[in-house]
Amino acid sequence: xxxxxxxxxxxxxxxxxxxxxxxxxxxxxxxxxxxxxxxxxxxxxxxxxxxxxxxxxxxxxxxxxxxxxxxxxxxxxxxxxxxxxxxxxxxxxxxxxxxxxxxxxxxxxxxxxxxxxxxxxx
Length: 122
Fold this sequence. Notes:
Helix content: under 10%
Shape: globular
Strand content: over 45%
Oligomer: single chain
Number of strands: 11
């Protein structure tokens, strides 16, 4: 089964940018759809962005459309989340996930990273 490791989180001021990376190992990366979820304290884990395994289809949470961009580099077994114009409400732990399709629900994803904290100050 694929293992995932995220990096790139941190503390940033509102309006700033961060780029999250998630490196996969132990599986065939190109056979997985990839997604980024986030979970704020006391709230459920929600899908922020997802990309189909052939990269033809992407999905975004409405509140991040136009600000976040998901991309993948199959040669490097890596998925990215470029986050621009960050807002305090984007503060959360961000997780990457791998699954057979770009499902909306976290239930259907097979592998998860350990999470990386993103904190946006006002």
